[in-house]
Amino acid sequence: MSGGKSSMPISRDDTDGNLASWVPKGDGIVNSFQDQETTGLYARLGEQENEISALRWQVARAYIDEMQQLNEKYALERKVSDLQMAMDEKQKEFATSVSKELAQRKGDLDHNIKLISNLKDEEDERYIFMTSLLGLLAEYDVWPNISSASAICLAVKHLHSELQWKIKTLDGENESSPSSHQEVEQHLDVTDDMRRYMDDNNILDPRSLVPNDLDEGPGIEGFQVVGDARPGGKLLGCGYPIRGTSLCMFQWVRHLDDGTSQYIEGATNPDYAVTADDVDKYVAVNCVPMDDKGRQGKLVRVIANNENKITCDPDMQLEIDTYLSKGHATFSILMLVNTAENWEPATLTLKRSGFQVKINETGSTPIFERFSKDLLIKIPSGISSQFVLTIHNGSSHPFSTHNDVRKRDTIVLTMRMFQSKVLDDMGKGIRNSVL
What was the pLDDT predicted at 171? Predict the structure, then answer.
């Protein structure tokens, strides 16, 4: 070509050569870029692998710690289980021992109550016997200074010998004979041996206690009983001491319709609290005045309530009659359970045929009885608001009425009325069956 810049023809070889010379330059840039990126990826990959390794190590460590904690947990649970089993066994042993001890205490308590009852009966018999002997001796002006068995026995022997000698003297000898009088007086004199025995046993010579015209001995004037002669009331025996009286001995007595009498246990003070045991009975007080020399005056006896029987006040009688007409009564009480300190709130329910006691807390019914002649209802001496039920099997159960004496007397009288009515009905049924 002419007239311009000439262009050289490009051959295929030249083209391939040029392309070949250019392509290597581009591959170097790409490879360099790829190397940097790969290096970064490898670096990040290494870091991530390190992190994964660290995490795996932490997971493994945590797993090991967890397994150790689980082992410790299982060991502790096993120890707790063993301790719980041991505790359960100890509790069972303790409950068994406590149950045995409570049963033994209850048995001891029942035995003690029976012994106390037997002792009371024996003391009543002893007191009646001794007072009967003292009354017999008092009729012959013989006054032992102390109320002991030996003193009374000696006084009775002495009185017996005197009476025997008098009988022989009156039957066999002339009363007008001086020698007879001398022998009687000689026999009536206390011998030296007897005097020494009386001095050793603190027994006064009976003749020294016989009042004469100038000295009638200690006494009490205007003796009377004042106070409220109803259950829960107080009675007081009082009078004016005369002739040197410095001391008075008291004994309260119940007189029954059959003519017998009962000395009230523990009632040896001037005052006396009337209880349900005194209802429909005569209550009297015996008083023996004494002086500083130990001489006793004549026994003074006064019947309370103007010599009438003890009765309930109208309100109490109306309450009891209401219970009887309804044939049902309920009282809140305390029951002694097992030990002397364990008083449990309970409910006493009376019905026409029987009664029951239910413990409020547990709902148990330790007593469920029918009224019978075996039921005994007693009021202990000196315990103001308690009463004791002795049931058919001989076991005794103490109860209390929260220091409410009136309530105690109402319960006792109501139960006795229910019991009396049941026994009367049983007697009528037996008589009808016989007829």
Answer: 67
